Every structure is written in C-alpha cells, then in structure tokens.
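Internal tracking record. Fields below are filled automatically when a chain is submitted to the structure queue. Please do not edit lines marked as system-generated. If the sequence contains nonstandard residues, flag them in the REMARKS field before resubmitting.
Queue: standard
Priority: normal
Entity type: single polypeptide chain
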Amino acid sequence: MSVAPETGGMDVFVYGTLTDPATAASVLETYTYRGPATLAGLHRVDGRYPTLAPGGTTDGRLLRTPDVAALDAYEGVDRDLYVRVSPPRADTADGRVECYVGDPAALDAPVEWPGTGPFADRVGRVCRREDVGVRVRE
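SYSTEM-GENERATED OUTPUT FOLLOWS
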C-alpha cells in the first residue's frame, strides 16, 4: 500500500470488507484511512456480502483513494451488485463522500428499498429524502 495524497482521490465510506487494511491493500494500489466515521440514515444488513438498508446508522471508516475504477470493479458495479451513491459529509459544509450500497436481490439480503424503478434510483431517492450523511468521528 502507498499513502494517497491529501489532495486528489475520493473519500469513500466503507463498512464491510474494505475496513480491513489487508483487504484494502489487495484491492487498491494507493489509499489511506482518514478515520472512523458514521453513516446516518442507513444501517448495515448482512447477506452474501454486507449492504445497507434505510434507517438507523452504520459505523465504518473513511477511506481516501484515487483508484475509483478498482473500487467499482471490486464492488461489482458493472455486474449490478452494488451502486455508488454520494451522500454529503455532515461535518463539513461542502464535502461529499462516496458509498457503495448492495442490491439486496443480488446479495440475498433481507432488505426492502421503497419505491419503484431501478435499484440505483430507489437508493438515490431514499438518500435524498432521508437526509443521509457521513460524519467523521474523532
């Protein structure tokens, strides 16, 4: 692993396998953890892989990396396993954080996302309506 520069890259809220440095190092060429974080408005549910569901909170870590394509590949975005959403950082005025949400149908997870239409659209609507946000913990 090499440390990502403080500028550049994207901040990602991770709550599953990527919270483990060994896993992150096997997926990403460059990354750094920026501290513990809490995602408000979505809670973790375990299926074949961890995912999120509406309501509650999830503890995890904030990870910074410029390797967006590697993360998308690992999370199976092209295979419709996960979608990437961009909730705001609750502790800054203008920051956003990326977060991956797994499709419960693809992951055998007991989660219901309200509404109709494609999974990514339903997740986006809930995130906007429920004021989902990430806060870095000290």
